[in-house]
Design goal:
Helix content: 40-55%
Number of domains: 1
Structural class: alpha+beta
Strand order of the largest sheet: 1-2-4-3
Distance between the termini: 12 Å
Order of helices and strands: EEEHHEH
Number of helices: 3
Strand content: 15-25%
């Protein structure tokens, strides 16, 4: 089966079905995009927490989340809302 891609201004997601009974998360936060480890880890924490809160609605997929340059310096509340929207889009398009 083929994977699917979803994106917005702040994040890009790739999803591929897996053989597990649950969704799994992978993160790609580029040093070139965010620079410092503090900034990269901040984005990772936001993405992991958002995944944790939404994984119950997701089908069994391997999901790779990549942060885009637009996410730099954006308020965490906006980033969480962006991720929530992408999770729900992904869940609807099984």
């Amino acid at each position: 089966m083929q994977g699917r891609r979803f994106s917005d201004t702040y994040f890009s997601m790739s999803a591929l079905p897996n053989q597990e009974s649950h969704a799994r998360l992978g993160l790609a936060i580029a040093t070139k995009t965010f620079g410092s480890a503090v900034a990269r880890n901040h984005i990772k924490r936001i993405a992991r927490e958002s995944f944790r809160l939404n994984q119950h609605v997701l089908p069994p997929l391997d999901i790779m989340v990549a942060a885009r340059a637009g996410a730099r310096g954006i308020a965490p509340k906006i980033l969480r809302a962006s991720l929530d929207e992408l999770w729900h889009t992904l869940a609807k398009r099984r």
